[in-house]
Amino acid sequence: MTTEEQNKYDNALKLVKKIKGFYTHLLVYVVINTMIVIVNIQNLDANESYFQMQNFATAFFWGIGLLAHGLSVFGPNIFLGKNWEERKIKELMEKEKIAKWE
Asked: From start to end of 3-96, where are the E strands?
């Protein structure tokens, strides 16, 4: 396997691990929030409505984190994408070369 093929394989492996991590996060989110809903419904008093903010706070704020995780895996690489990584690696390698010559 050539170096280029190895790099492509390594990048694909990293992406697969990121996707797997996201789906694991999503599964845990669904399971835990389903359990929270069930417990909250069981603990309702007579004539009490389930639709109160405290019943949705965990799902809402965790959902924001899940959304950010999903965008980091599937979304556009706006801030710290692959191009940024490659540029930063080259920059650091150049700095190391210069430091060795000084």
From this structure: none
Domain assignment present for residue 96? The answer is no
Which residue ranges of the chain lie beneath pLDDT 70? 53, 77-82, 98-102
pTM for the structure as a whole: 0.69
| CB 67 within 8 Å of CB 22 | no
The string over 47-67, giving b where at least 16 C-beta atoms fall within 10 Å of a residue's C-beta and e elsewhere, is eeeeeeeeebeebeebeeebe
- Owning domain of residue 54: 3-76
Confirm whether 97 is domain-assigned.
Answer: no
Q: Please classify residue 6 by burial: count the beta carbons closer than 10 Å to its beta carbon, then call 0-12 exposed, 13-18 middle and 19+ buried.
A: exposed
Residue 4 tokens, joined:
């280029």
pLDDT at 19: 93
Domain presence at residue 53: yes
pLDDT at 54: 72
In a domain, 100, yes or no: no
Question: Count of domains in the chain?
Answer: 1
